[in-house]
Amino acid sequence: MTPTHLPGRVAIPSLPEQTRTPPSPNGLECFNAAPADEVRRTLLTCLRSPRWADRIAVHRPYPDVDSLLAASDEAAYDLTPPDLAEALAGETLPVLPEGAYGAAHTALNAANAAYEAKFGHAFVICLDGLPPEEALDHVLQAIRSRLANDPDEERVLTADELRRLARGRLVRCLKGAGL
Q1: EC number(s) on record (predicted)?
Q2: pTM of structure
Q3: pLDDT tens across 1-11, in order?
Q4: What does each C-alpha distance from 8 to 113, 143, 168 come to in angstroms?
């Protein structure tokens, strides 16, 4: 099932597990050996950019996870503005952490509405390595801070957040050999 962009929502990835287990070599072996269309579908769950996914898929096999992650970063840095817009359009908001109070939802929705009105796309932020109890405050602080950016500066920050999201999602796919 392909997620769709939910207007007025912030793209916050699911919080990662707090363990720092490196991806298994078997995950990389599966990634390298899987059919191209299967790898492409998996990659599109990491970043909704066909150009990025194709570039990663065609350069297989990767000798190690670090090489794959370096290729992922390079491909993300090379995305054009239309590629970035396409990737941003695919970002969605998972459910806020359990126990988030109503005022938090209101504050987040208001901050995101102001962000989308100014920049014309979803707010994205990578929360990898952040304790779950700090996520909501971190997102609210970041969105408010980034509202002060000019559009060019924000485009650079957004592209970097997408790159970081793709990297973290790719590592999680390899850990689970989700192919």
Answers
A1: 4.1.1.97
A2: 0.80
A3: 333 333 344 45
A4: 6, 13, 24
Tell me whether the omega of the peptide bond preceding residue 132 falls within 30 degrees of 0, making it cis.
Answer: no
- Asked if residue 10 lies in contact with residue 140, where contact means CB atoms within 8 angstroms, the answer is no
Residues 121-161: pLDDT tens digits?
989 999 998 888 888 888 899 999 999 999 999 999 999 99
Q: How far apart are CA 149 and CA 144, in angstroms?
A: 10
Q: For the chain, what is the total number of helices (H) and then of strands (E)?
A: 8, 0
Distance CA 43, CA 63 (A): 18
The fold adopted by the segment(s) 25-175 is: UraD-like (1.10.3330)
Measured between alpha carbons, how far is 175 from 88 in angstroms, rounded to an integer? 25
Give yes or no for a contact between 28 and 139, defined as CB atoms under 8 angstroms apart: no
- Going from N- to C-terminal start, the domains of the chain cover 25-175
Nearest residue to 54 via CA among 79, 30, 21, 27: 79
